[in-house]
Structures are given as structure tokens and as C-alpha cells.
Amino acid sequence: MNDYVKYGLIGALVVLLIILWRRGVLKQLGDYVVETREELRKCSWPSVDELRGSTVVVMISILLLGVFTVGIDFVLTLMFRFMTTQV
Length: 87
Fold this sequence. Notes:
Blueprint: H1 3-23, H2 25-42, H3 48-85
């Protein structure tokens, strides 16, 4: 890149940050981050054992849903083949 382009981009970024700072947008963003951190500290996070148990339940549920979907698809395919070969 040309040096003038680099300096122009840096200057535009500085001007943009000054405009955002003067309008109070940067303060609002900082307040949002602080409030989000405070709310996340209030959350109760699962223990490792609870997380493992939930993961196992989700994996088994996905497996059962997959088997059910494949089974229904297989049965419907057989039915349609039987119906189309009889005509």
C-alpha cells in the first residue's frame, strides 16, 4: 500500500473515534460491557458433572431422533416403491 493511503486510513480512523467519543457512543459501549459483566457474574454456571450429563442427554436425543428420521424415511420409501410398482 502507498504510504499516503495508510496515513489517510489512520487519520480517518482517528476522526471516526473522535466523533464517536464526542457523541457519547464510546461511553455507551463501555457501560454496556460493564453491565454485561455484572449480569454474567450473577448467572449460575453448571458444574463439570452437570455439563457432562447434559451433553450425554443431548447426544442420546440426537441419536434417537436420527434413527427415527432414517426409519420413517425407509418405511415411506418402501411404501412409495410398492405403490408405484403396482400401477
